[in-house]
Amino acid sequence: MLCCFHAISVVCTVRCQKFLISRVGEDWIFLILLGLLMALVSWVMDFCIAICLQAQKWMYGGLDSNVFLQYLAWVTYPVVLITFSAGFTQILAPQAVGSGIPEMKTILRGVVLKEYLTFKTFVAKVIGLTCALGSGMPLGKEGPFVHIASLCAALLSKFMSLFGGIYENESRNIEMLAAACAVGVGCCFAAPIGGVLFSIEVTSTFFAVRNYWRGFFAATFSAFIFRVLAVWNRDEETITALFKTSFRLDFPFDLQELPAFAVIGIANGFGGALFVYLNRLIVQFMRKQKAINRFLMKKRLLYPALVTLLISTLTFPPGFGQFMAGKLTQKESLVTLLDNRTWAKQGIAEEFDYIGHSEAWKHPQVNVFVTLVLFIVMKFWMSALATTIPVPCGAFMPVFVIGAAFGRLVGESMAAWFPDGIHTDGTIYPIVPGGYAVVGAAALSGAVTHTVSTAVIVFELTGQISHILPVMIAVILANAVAQSLQPSLYDSIIRIKKLPYLPELGWGHHEYVQKYNIRVEDIMVRDVRYITLNCSYRDLHNVLLTESMILLGSIERAQLQALLSLQLGRHRRLEYIRERALEEKKRLSVVSNVSSENISQRASQEVRFQISTEDSSLSPSRPVPQKPLKPALKRPSVVERATEIPTGPHDHSGIALKNLFCASPDTEALEVREPCPR
């Protein structure tokens, strides 16, 4: 009875284990874990970033009695954080530098980038990004979060492979990485729909429909948990939009305002192309100046420290920062820019109605238009410069804020030109500058990234779709202008980093249009050096000595030399000679039994070989008969002498090379003493 009970319990245990393993290995479990993990990471990072920014303001406010000490506190704090972020990232995982979206575009096209999806990179990305954003520099988190989500997906795939072998499949991993890109945007802005669409536009030229539900499921779950954590921490009363607006719904805009929205789209198209060009110009300038480049390569932390010092000095509130709302963080700036209340009716400073953070835009000598223009111009080049710092950072959020500021400028101008609003059917509808800010934010971010899904992200960020028509018009016009002038920011970074990626050929460029007429045969190289299983030693030797710029694969020289030594070393040659001698003896014994006539004939046609290390090839002691030699008599050519290959100053494989290319005296003696088959 005990044995039967034990057997039944074992069988039940095994079946339960198989059931759990099969269930845990399913996609929905993986996607839930991915969404939950990313929501926790996003919320913890936001919490730490808020503490860092609050600490800077606390230090600045506590020293209000001395302006110089205030300046030191305002400048030193971000310099220390940025320097730590750059140093920590450089030491632990340099692959974590930058946005991460260009690398993910490359990986999702099948290119393997070493160390980009490892745990070290994950730690460096999270800690480095937290410090970089906590410094208050004009940097974003959306791009790095796409990389972080992909890192989480890759690490989860390795963990889940313990339960089911399906996650060891490369195709399945690519599908999960595509879903992870959507999760990164979804948990960053609490915008699951826009996150999925943005990930499709940014990272994929071909998107499998079967991945659609994975992206939506994981992104929605992640955004839900992210907002629930905000309610749990009492940051919000309930689950709401991240930047909730309260525009009027009955008549959000008039048709006569559509030309103004179109102007915002076109202007932001030129602005987006200019931002991409300026970012690339800064990087190329730093690389072309060889003296500066060599100096900065030795002092890697000097460049981020100097850039941070410059930007912090210009945003110092008692200094130049008072003219550009310098004391506001990016989140506070965006909240004030999206406010639906008009700051001025005639542009007169005394008529401003400032509440809360809007006070930062007030200045006794300068009106709101000058403040907004200075904010746009200064933040524009500051953001383009800051995104070149070697720390984990993105550019979406700074560009989003700049676009909102430009839209706000147009909206305030419309409010000044039409102080009583636009009359329609006897009803007065005042201008809503916050609506213009929403349109500008979507247009500029769409122009820089070459995406239309920024419109959907804006709707989810604000919680309102009242301005859906102007937003779509502006985003489409901005994309049309930007795509005809410059590549997207991510494609530009791919070109700068020289990542193995083929960009799309757009019809807007004449150079691209001409490339449609170029065929593969016009650029292909026909004389390609290669090795096969049937290659001789001489062929392989020539390939090693010949330099080729065509990448067909990769193998370390030490490995190749070790393989050659294993196949052509002293012991292998001795063994080969013995085998051939035995085969010849067996063959001759069989032939001798046929007839004495054949034996004498074979003796007359005997061929003798003289093995010598002085010649580069074997030479027969008698003239070669007309009958071609059999393959068995050709094989001793493995002991021929070859030209030496220089191995450099560190001769790690000197013994292997001697065994490979030189015949030792013992080997020669043995080979000479070996009887020649007759």
Automatic annotation (TrEMBL):
The keyword Zinc-finger does not apply. It holds the Pfam family Voltage_CLC. Residues 610-639 are annotated as: Disordered. The keyword Transmembrane helix applies. The chain crosses the membrane at residues 28-53, 74-96, 116-133, 145-164, 176-200, 212-232, 258-280, 301-320, 368-389, 396-418. The lineage of its organism: Eukaryota, Metazoa, Chordata, Craniata, Vertebrata. This is Chloride channel protein. Keywords: CBS domain, Chloride, Chloride channel, Ion channel, Ion transport, Membrane, Repeat, Transmembrane, Transmembrane helix, Transport. GO terms for cellular component: chloride channel complex; plasma membrane. One of its GO terms (molecular function) is voltage-gated chloride channel activity. It is found in: Membrane. It is a multi-pass membrane protein. Residues 610-620 have a biased composition (Polar residues).
